[in-house]
Amino acid sequence: MIKLNANSKIILNNKTEIPVIGFGVFRIPDGEEVVNAVKWALEAGYRHIDTAMIYKNEEGVGKAIRESGIPREEIFVTTKLWNTDQGYDNALKAIDVSLSKLELSYVDLYLVHWPTAGDHAKGESINKRQETWRAMEEICKLGKARAIGVSNYTITHLEEMKKYVKIPPAINQVEFHPFLYQEELLNYCQQNNITFEAHSPLILGEKLDNEIINSIAKKYGKTSAQILLRWSLQHGAIPLPKSTHRERIEENIKVFDFELEAEEMKQLNSLNQNLHLRADPTNLK
Known about the structure:
Largest sheet: 8 strands, parallel
Strand order of the largest sheet: 3-4-5-6-7-8-9-10
Mean pLDDT: 97
Radius of gyration: 18 Å
Shape: globular
Number of domains: 1
Strand content: 5-15%
CATH class: Alpha Beta
CATH superfamily: NADP-dependent oxidoreductase domain
């Protein structure tokens, strides 16, 4: 395995470079809380911030980036298109709203958040994927996003895309942790040159007391969270840990000074229960 460090990057299929670990801001309230969290992350060495329109904290993320003193081009910023903004015209408007809130002229990555224009949590399948992707390609051509991709897409959705894409997705961001080890989807993305991002890599704080995870953590003198993030990295995924605690934010990027052994990776893989803590996109047609 290539030796990674906090500054390592992956080259996406459109030649854009993305840091191998990111900082997620899901459910961090806008204002001082998200501003502080993002600033702490940037001070700790993160150079990849992942937000979304529906998180309602793009303003705070943008403020933290501006106040950090770090040049804009050194920070990789992701935001996402919400379900109700899908469709060609709506998507073109939505990116402008996000850029306005972030106070940025471009994002590094723009993702279609879910493969439905309906309420994914209720399993509402409203398919506007083709026209939405046409807008995503236009957004990319206009320079409003350096790369475009998808989130929560299954193999079925990605196969469907082959019929209509001119610019293939650079990223698929999905829930990924040992209790939802989506091996088939991971392999598919890697074979199709789609970089794999792991949201909820810390299992939303659940299962951190698992005996296998704890025993491996003890061996390396690391936290359970650090073991989970290392597992993602060694699968070639980009984990997006989230925290509002400065100490944990700093701990979560200290995952480059050890490497899990093959047997330990197998042990962690074996924890798979197909456990979706977020909505399961499988039935979104």
